[in-house]
Recover the amino acids of this structure.
DNA sequence: TTGTAAGCGTTATCAC
DNA sequence: GTGATAACGCTTACAA
């Protein structure tokens, strides 16, 4: 058999029409799946020609004509964070099934980069936008949403911005977790976090943590440690303070997210403090390595995949014309208890 | 001040032209940065109008006209793998600077999904493609490259496919690492990997490992353990075999990648085997948690960010018209020694 | 069941 | 310096 000679140029709808002996309209009907208005014979010829010419309709042209790009922009504050990857995966599974593609951006928590990406995705005419926001571009986001581009925020909400949001049910998760820590008999619990203000998920976690402790009359209501990663030494200073203050007490440290977890574990190790012998440990975000650090880390497993899945579903609903009021979807997390938060009684026995 | 009234529809180049009192051509010149053929006065009016109308040129229209989309497709075999994320970041940093955007896909190592994505990105008229391939779609990739779409493969090469590739210099990395293991005095080294055949990076790692051992007359030339994750129990069986066979010897386990690392560490822990007291450990891919597992894991840190960076640079060179012969770029890895591979002498002393 | 023709928002060519 | 006009590859009334 001889090789079918390769078409010199990318085939267009006109080429296929010509090859099949029909008009472009008919090909277009075929492409849109409108088979019932095409005769069987024609259909066969079209299929044949499409295959022979290796025809792939241009999404660009279609997008231009229909004023939609069949793509969704995704902007992450930190793509290295496994949280982001998992969300991405969930989003993709929905996206692909519906014939959309994802344009992925990473802002490194830089509002300036975020602004540029928003602008670029706007130019790209994305049909929707899923954002893990830096929370410092209210105006740009507001403009977009006024331009009728559906937006879903994940993890973090922005007050005053009328868009759908999807995240973890932090109140519920922290209520459960904090209760568990109390049950385990911890006398002091240090809550470590990057700057809390403006980041709704951190606010929720810290607030519920304090509420539960306050209700129990627990002394750690003031053990909130905020560090700004860019301020040299601040983190170490705070950790040292907590360690010194709680000397001799049955204590643990809680990390607001996975980045803080790693910072803490490294710092504890450097100080020669063992988990859980010298200090208990827990934090938000489960990971593949949480089970293998020491005797395992107790974590709050956020429903990351589900967050991505739901966010994309919501975007597509909006694109499909849903004009209902904006909603917040709070998905349930899972408390996974491991060796890093042993019961005080067990220790005593 | 009263709000500037929001344009009822997205502004087009025609709207801007009208507002500025010039032709579309002039606006287009402005957009392409051809300032020197525009008078200063006109330029000012254009800038003004663009701002007022919040005009964003449609990349779709531009793409259609120029037959390029200014986007690069990225297909990952496993986006959850930190390797992918880091590559993504490197690629993005280049991409963004040049005004391109990335369409990100994840195949979960499924050749069928890969095929669909290739087809979709083709339809999207991506200007180039960076692929971490499943290595089972030779034909589709060949078609693409024949269609003159630049492709760069990362990590894995596919024999017979004439495209650029970027990856780790596995020979050099494994030469160094294996030599180090020998220096540390390990009597047996188990090399654990998913199926090696067809995956060039695994082939290179295993081959060099064996070569170095053979040259040293070391008994572990046969300690290559291949497991197929989908075969229930195979992995555990192989691990048990190695453990039993090497009882009493100074031994270690080497993981071909980060997935295998986690599998092994979990399995060792479950068996109550300590690292490094009962068995030494090392593996390809450094991670944020490698320093905190036990007394730290010895790893080979692949230049992941650089791989992404280089791959994207290469794609853009190709797009810019480079027609040179296809090349392979082997970037240097870094051996990071930690507590999991102690010297035998140190132990004896 | 099929076709004609207009138009989506740009850029490229050519002319002034 | 500036502009008219014709594409680019598709979809969509509207006809037939």
């Amino acid at each position: 058999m001889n090789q079918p000679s390769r078409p010199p140029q990318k085939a267009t709808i006109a080429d296929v029409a010509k090859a099949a002996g029909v008009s472009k309209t008919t090909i277009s009907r075929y492409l849109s799946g409108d088979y019932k208005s095409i005769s069987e014979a024609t259909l066969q010829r079209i299929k044949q020609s499409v295959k022979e010419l290796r025809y792939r309709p241009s999404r660009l042209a279609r997008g231009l004509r229909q004023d939609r790009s069949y793509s969704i922009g995704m902007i992450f504050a930190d793509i290295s964070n496994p949280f982001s990857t998992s969300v991405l995966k969930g989003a993709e599974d929905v996206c692909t099934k519906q014939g959309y593609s994802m344009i992925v951006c990473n802002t490194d928590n830089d509002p300036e980069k975020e602004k540029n990406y928003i602008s670029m995705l706007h130019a790209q005419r994305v049909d929707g936008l899923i954002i893990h926001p830096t929370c410092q571009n209210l105006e740009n986001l507001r403009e977009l949403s006024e331009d009728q581009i559906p937006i879903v925020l994940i993890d973090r909400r922005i007050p005053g911005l009328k868009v759908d949001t999807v995240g973890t049910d932090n109140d519920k998760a922290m209520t459960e977790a904090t209760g568990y820590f109390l049950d385990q008999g911890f006398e002091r619990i240090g809550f470590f976090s990057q700057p809390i203000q403006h980041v709704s998920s951190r606010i929720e976690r810290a607030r519920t943590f304090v509420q539960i402790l306050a209700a129990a009359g627990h002394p750690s209501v003031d053990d909130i440690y905020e560090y700004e990663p860019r301020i040299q030494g601040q983190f170490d200073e705070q950790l040292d303070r907590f360690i010194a203050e709680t000397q001799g007490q049955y204590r643990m440290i809680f990390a607001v997210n996975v980045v803080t977890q790693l910072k803490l574990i490294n710092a504890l190790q450097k100080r020669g403090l063992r988990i859980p012998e010298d200090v208990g440990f827990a934090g938000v975000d489960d990971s593949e390595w949480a089970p293998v650090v020491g005797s395992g880390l107790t974590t709050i497993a956020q429903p990351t995949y589900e967050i991505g899945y739901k966010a994309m579903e919501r975007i597509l609903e909006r694109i499909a014309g849903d004009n209902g009021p904006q909603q917040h979807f709070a998905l349930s997390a899972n408390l996974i208890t491991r060796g890093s938060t042993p019961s005080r009684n067990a220790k005593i026995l």
User: Anything to note?
Assistant: The CA atoms of residues 91 and 312 of chain A lie 5 Å apart. Confidence is low (pLDDT under 50) at residues 1-7 of chain A. Residues 71-167+304-332 of chain A form a domain with the Rossmann fold fold (CATH 3.40.50.2300). The first helix of chain A runs from residue 13 to 20.
